[in-house]
Amino acid sequence: MNKEELVALLDSIVEPIVFVDTRHIIRYVNKSAKDKHAKKGYMNLVGSSIFQCHNERSNEIILDTFKMLQKGEDEKVIYMNSAKQRVFMRAVRDSDGKLIGYYERVEKD
Fold first, then answer.
1. Has domain 3-107 been given CATH number 1.10.510.10?
2. DSSP label of 28
3. CA 65, 68, 74, 76 torsion: positive or negative?
4. Which CA distances in Å does 31 have to 48, 65, 70?
5. Do 62 and 49 touch, CB atoms closer than 8 A?
6. Which CA distances in Å does 82 have to 28, 87, 108?
């Protein structure tokens, strides 16, 4: 699969995906996430810090959860949103198991 096909695949997913590297820099935003964040006034997120998009309490949760991912956890519920959907922070690891980043995942009831 080439990069164009991978981007097309990720953009076809209806759930928002924002991939963040281990320095907390946004590296990829799928179409659904772009549309969602554009409504909130956030444009061109790629290359910016994830902390610029969140409040202080959310940033603390991200950092605490990131530490857990570094220690081997793969996923953790970080909050329940206003639509009563569980929001998870999910680890992304390379083929050797090294943490290379993370993304939020929303689970609908």
1. no
2. E
3. negative
4. 17, 25, 28
5. no
6. 25, 11, 12
What is the number of residues in the chain? 109
Which of 89-96's residues contact partners 24+ apart within 8 Å by CB, and which partners? 89/62, 89/65, 92/19
pLDDT in tens, 44-92: 889 999 998 889 999 999 999 999 999 999 999 998 877 788 889 999 9
Residue with tokens 């810090």: 49
Q: In what order do the strands lie in the sheet with 99-107?
A: 26-29, 18-21, 99-107, 86-93, 75-80
User: In which element (H, E) is residue 107 found?
Assistant: strand 99-107
